[in-house]
Description:
Layout: H1 2-12, E1 19-22, E2 33-35, E3 42-49, E4 53-59, E5 63-65, E6 67-72, E7 84-88, E8 94-98, E9 106-110, E10 115-123, E11 131-133, E12 136-143, E13 148-155, H2 163-180
Parallel strand pairs: 1-3, 2-4
Antiparallel strand pairs: 3-13, 4-12, 5-11, 6-10, 6-13, 7-8, 7-12, 9-10
Amino acid sequence: MLRIALFATLLASPALAHVPVLASEAKTMQAPYVIDDAQHSKAIYAILDGDADYYRIEEAEPFDFYVGITAAKLESCDLQQTFSFEILDENMNVIDSRDGAAHTWTPWFEEFGKKWYWVGPEIGTEFASTTIYPAGTYYVRVFNEANTGKYVLAVGDDERFGLGTLLTIRGVVRDTSKFFWDEADCG
């Protein structure tokens, strides 16, 4: 009965949360993580492991552009690392950027996943697009001084859940919760 109620709630409420995605593979300049349908909201859980991460967005039509970065807020410690990002054009020229070290990160409770986050810089406001980008190819480069740490890249603001998402979301939420909200990371 509870599953039916949850399913009905998700279908009736399109603006509940970004779709969680666990991106464990390398995200290099030569082989970036491809973000399909950049307007469809996603929360991409990833780890910097010594190098900057790269994401590619390719859209055939003008589109609402939103990118923001968050990090898990652990109970027993303050924000451990900040993250910055740049938006690059198809020739890898920087066209916009946000400096996580200069940003005031604020705590935020996400109702759907029942987790606390640190909210960092964004292109947009309060997880929503304020900019339309022309059709084209863009890259997002995520980095910090040491190029280490766990972060969540939020993209898009069109919140919708398909049947495939509903079938896999529980496992992804469980995996991200175990790994990203690990109190052992305090220190």
